[in-house]
Known about the structure:
The model has no long low-confidence stretch (mean pLDDT 90). Among the domains are: 32-190, Rossmann fold (3-Layer(aba) Sandwich), CATH 3.40.50.980; 416-512, ANL, C-terminal domain (GMP Synthetase, Chain A, domain 3), CATH 3.30.300.30. It has a nine-stranded mixed beta sheet with strand order 2-1-11-10-12-13-14-15-16, with helices on both faces. Strands 4-3-5-6-7 form a five-stranded parallel beta sheet. Strands 17, 18, 20, 21 and 22 form a five-stranded antiparallel beta sheet that branches. The protein contains 15 helices and 27 strands. Helix content is 28%, strand content 26%. By secondary structure, it is an alpha/beta fold.
Amino acid sequence: MGNVWNIGYIVKDKASTMPNNNAFIFEDVPVTYKELNEQVNRIAHYFQSLGMKKGDRVALYLMNCPEYIYTFFAGAKIGLIIVPLNFRLVGAELSYQLNNSGARLLLFHARFTETVRQIKDQIPVNKDKYIYLPGRDPEAPACPAWANPFHEQVKEYPCTEPVLMEHVYLDDPLGIIYTSGVTGAPKGAVVSHNQTFYKIMSLSPTGTPNLIFLTQLPLFHSGGLFISLTSCIGLGRTMVFRQNFDPVQFCLDIEKYKVNIVFALTTMWRFILDSGKLDEVDHSSLIMAIGGGERTPMALLDKLKEKGIIMSVGFGQTENSAMMALPAADVDRKPGSVGKPREWTDIWIEDEQGNKLPPGQIGEIVAIGPKVMSGYWNNPEATAKAIVNGVLHTGDLGYMDEEGYFWVVDRAKDMYRSGGENVYPAEIEKVLYEHPKVQNVAIIGVADDKWGETGKAFIEIADNQSITLEEVHEFLKGKVSRFKFPSSVEVIAELPMTATGKIKKSELKEKYGVRLDR
């Protein structure tokens, strides 16, 4: 079955070799590697006491918090599979992902109590497997009768290393990360322990421990969990983070903690620049700034450069994170490029027949390597389409130049990214088709100064009626997450169609210009 080893060994190792170093600082409260490992062990014992066994799924419906980190590594130690849930999910989306993953346990913050209550009868989680955490909201409801209080139960367990009932192997699943589905059904990308170790190794450009790493990505996000957290802990660094992103506080933290590496999505960098606070703090400690998450305009890179910050742009996806990076030294020389493949990844461009294309020709970006996901959870059909003969088909279109640098030119399947979050128009369109006024609808991603891209909905209306953006938003409430709502609506007499009756989104894109100025 492979080597007996797991990601949980990281915290055990660090507790032994650097016990008094800070593993992370959350809301100005430091936690050492020794304390981290002790909390991880207590939770691992707690899970075992509940009868959890290797392969069981633990779902986390939490804001950023220390318990997220403890639970992740506790699950890793004893072979549980962590299912991070987007805290923006509403009832229908939440119940789908819990049912699809078959979660045995759900940890949720107090602020989400009502959402969980509404859907708890729709999911096969045993009554005693709802675990309540108060969080940082003083007005949040108390622990309901149908849930168990996390801290009161965990504190009773020892901090000794848990005894494994079954070996955990490198190829075993570590997490299931859900991606937005093009047909409204999200797919769960399965990430193994082995893939995660390779990501850690490819994210060690300096190889130096004791660096201070500041990030504010949500931990449910692949970039938060598998790029920020595991790389920091795996490399013996200190991660500074907070429950929520605030651009002013982010800048203050750079100065306060003498931060060496910052990681923020492109949208976050926009907020940081707009706050003006970056000019007022000492950021001379920075040795690396990392960005990405959506298309990054050159104008933003230039503004950061004016302030002495040269940002490295990264590129990846949930199915294969940490794929490519453009070093800071190449930003001016290769404007708009997403860089070269990172370590442990081989990437090239293919045409529709699977032929490798020469430099300059546009085709699909494909990849192989030990960082590629294992597949989609309980979805062999989607897995077979995404991974063909071991090669991951990313669904992104791009090209490379003679030096091996890559550019992304479009996204197949019409996905766009708003504020760093993947949005698939088909998911929203499916809901809007249920609106009594809507005869036909198409949503495309358009450039947006604040969010990078947002949705523009083109709607054919029945019987010469009208529809407003407010009506659309009201109809979508409770059905899809708010960040997926289109930001503009245009009533159109007739959508462009192909001969086979499919909407020609390419025509809408050409007419309304969705390419960002790079």
